[in-house]
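testing teh design pipeline on a random one, pls ignore if ur not involved
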């Protein structure tokens, strides 16, 4: 009986959360808001971890975030390597591939969950912020607010990730990889030394 009551209480809590803030959270995720921006925008008080888990679950369900690329897509990709020092060629190739693919079938490789020190899940946000000095605070907040799994993950190239990706490809030691699934191209390289100013 107690098990049924707990199940009912959890279901009721989920329903109330979804009615009060779930739809708003999903809408704000679609707009590219960071966890901090979502927290500030909600009119109904919701615990931070609840907002974070709701946003993350929606990112996975909607395909904004993938744990792995479709199996057949990754196997047949044509790899294009461009050095960061050729910024004009790199950005030109990136724009051309985005134009051919659209934003829906373009993903940016995200190794952020693999940066976590073993046993320190609580400090993940700070660890990510420390390594992303090439991004501004709002961009670091976006990346740090996602509870990345300890694996390579893939973020759809929406407006927010396009902005972040353009900076990360110039960030020393991080490297980059864009996956254009429609045309079967993987654009990759390693940043090495920082290229000249923006």
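output:
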């Amino acid at each position: 009986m107690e098990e049924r009551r707990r199940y009912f209480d959890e279901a009721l809590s989920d329903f109330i959360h979804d009615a009060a803030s779930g739809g708003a959270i999903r809408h704000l995720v679609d707009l590219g808001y960071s966890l901090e921006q979502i927290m500030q925008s909600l009119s109904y008080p919701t615990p931070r971890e609840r907002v974070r888990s709701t946003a993350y679950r929606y990112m996975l369900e909607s395909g904004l975030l993938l744990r792995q690329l479709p199996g057949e897509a990754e196997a047949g990709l044509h790899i294009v390597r461009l050095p960061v020092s050729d910024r004009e060629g790199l950005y030109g190739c990136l724009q051309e591939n985005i134009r051919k693919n659209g934003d829906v079938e373009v993903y940016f490789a995200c190794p952020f969950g693999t940066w976590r020190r073993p046993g320190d899940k609580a400090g993940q946000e700070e660890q990510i912020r420390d390594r992303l000095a090439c991004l501004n605070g709002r961009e670091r907040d976006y990346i740090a607010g996602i509870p990345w799994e300890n694996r390579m993950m893939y973020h759809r190239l929406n407006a927010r990730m396009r902005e972040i990706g353009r900076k990360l490809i110039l960030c020393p030691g991080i490297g980059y990889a864009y996956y254009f699934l429609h045309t079967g191209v993987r654009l990759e390289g390693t940043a090495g030394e920082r290229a000249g100013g923006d």
